[in-house]
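Hi there, hope your week has been kind to you so far. Do you reckon you could talk me through the fold, stretch by stretch? I've dropped the whole record in just underneath, so have a look:
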Amino acid sequence: MSEETPDSLIPYDEIVQEALRAVVGRVLGEIQRTGGELPGAHHFYITFKTGAPGVSIPAHLRERFPDEMTIVLQNKFWDLGVDDEGFTVGLSFNQIPAKLVIPFSAITAFVDPAVDFGLQFQAAAADMEPEAHDDAENDSAAADAEQAGEPPVGEGDDGSNVVTVDFGRKK
């Protein structure tokens, strides 16, 4: 008996990733149908590849987050729209409103910390290497703020903070 697993002619990994992204779509679709109200303490951290095909975010956010970005849907978001391909949402960043268009295929993680639920997605090989870009002007400011013990750049009091989330699983 051979110890080698034969190569599958069926793309199981892709099928599973697509099905899990559909979970995100269904959850966001339910929130859209209820008028954008999140039930109970539910809130979502959604991480996505900013350079993925179909992603539309303001230039200042793309400069600041050239590879990946995490948004929080909790208190202050508006105009949530969901279709088969992805979603759109209005958020405020440092009190500047922005409309984001995010295809489900760009999402790399979805977490609802209220119920300890999370999904991580594999990035396609093309998504794994960020495009070449100039250093963002805020790179040194963020590092300086961190060293000074100040909150990370982008965390304001408006409830729509961009955060980094550790997706490690509790055992």
